[in-house]
Amino acid sequence: MVRQLMMAASLAAFAAAAVPAAAQETQVRPISGTRLDVVAQGEVSRVPDLALINAGVMTQAQTATEAIRQNAARMEAVRAALRRAGIADRDIQTSTINLQPTYRYAENQPPELVGYQAHNQVTVRFRDIAETGRILDALVAQGANQINGPMLQIDRPETALDEARTQALTVARQRADLYARALGMRVSRVIAVSEAGGFMPPPRPMMAERAMVAQDASTQIDPGEQTLSVTLTVSFELE
Predict the structure, then answer these.
(1) Which pTM does this prediction carry?
(2) Contact, 99 vs 118, CB < 8 A?
């Protein structure tokens, strides 16, 4: 009998604990008016503040060992030039190391091995775009004969994306008010908000591969502007 009483008390306590959760679920106010779903986009423009560039050296020699040795020496000069220009080690990352044989081809003859090519490239982040052109020219002067880029992008886009989100919400509310007036109704409340995701343009290339540029060349980088956007779906109740 005592065990039955204890079990009954436990069940009663469990039921009492479950009541607030059930009550909480039933507190969601059902839609009594008309549901309106609005898709709105917010856009902001920013000047890119980060440039990504691939800079490297290609060397060729009769033996693999000599090609690699020459390449390593010239790449060390390139890295030293980057450090002298104030580029931090964290902004220099090896992207490609490659060694391959080169052949001479003649008609009706098997390929003849004539040497080896060594390639070494680093990806460099330039956080001061205004200095990018000057540093590129310095790299070429130090032996960099393969340069690709720059790819321009925004370093910290979240603040700009938040501004786009706020703008998208404003556009959605204005559009909902317009529909409500046209229907002789009013916006009662926001039911739900969902984000399709912020769009950030991919890094934009500004120039093609640049090799063996004259040492007295002056390279200018024009950052322009990039547009970031956010698309929201906002559900309203009209009454």
Answers:
(1) 0.63
(2) yes
